[in-house]
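Sequence in, structure out.
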Amino acid sequence: MRNLDHTELLTELEETLEQNLNRHLSMAKEWHPHDYIPWDEGRNFAAMGGDDWDESQSRLSDLARTAMITNLLTEDNLPSYHRGLADNFSLDGAWGTWVGRWTAEENRHGIVMRDYLVVTRAVDPVELERARMQHMTTGVDAPMDGANFLHSVAYVTLQELATRVSHRNTGLACGDEVADKMLARIAADENLHMIFYRNLGAAALDLTPDQTVRAIADVATDFAMPGLNMPNFRKNAMALAKYGIYDLRQHLDEVLMPVLRKWQIFERNDFSGEGEKDRDRLALFIDELSAKATKFEESRDRLLAREAARAELVS
């Protein structure tokens, strides 16, 4: 079977897109960022006659602050994501309606998280703004060289689910009922977005199995979160993995495998020889990722045990 070009893919999948757009609009809950902010905790900073931030004002742990900043800066690069989605989808008809709707919904996430962090003085607003400027100026590259429509569908399916997991775990780590409720609301949005893209991916697999499984294998084996270019990302990502906000095991068990099972990648019988090669490449990667996850978990457990022992000696 020949590969379909961009225009052919959009045409063939337009009905699926419209069905899932209508489904999404019927299920998406209207919510307002201002309803999730404890405004009575707000007060002026020095420029308005108040006090500037210092760490003693934050009720979040170092881990929770790191996770919240990482999640917020990821949401901040929405203009880059919109541009990439518009380029790889379309702004015509229902495609454009979805791109606009998705962008509007995602924009709320950055609004509500920043308002919470500034009003509650959870983080240094000056450093947060500097990091936002740097991160947005750098922008976000395409998830991989040669990315196309099918790569984008595969990538955003995994990325939306990964973001849902990260937001929920961050909410739990905050130890703050307001933050937990806010991040649970954001995670619910991300889950609906994931379902939309996952359904589009399922239709693409039925339409052009070999072409789609190649894109899925490409994305899964080279996946990176869109915050990769933010300041201190690798250091912060290691801290989040160390304390269970988002690690290799969660990526494998809570993100990658559930999506692949839903797409029935390892049960399908409609791949040609080329498609089977890509499925085999994906299976090998999963085995390797599982081994890496186990190795990381063992190393992390030893490290945390040593830290706990040192803390006990000090106390």
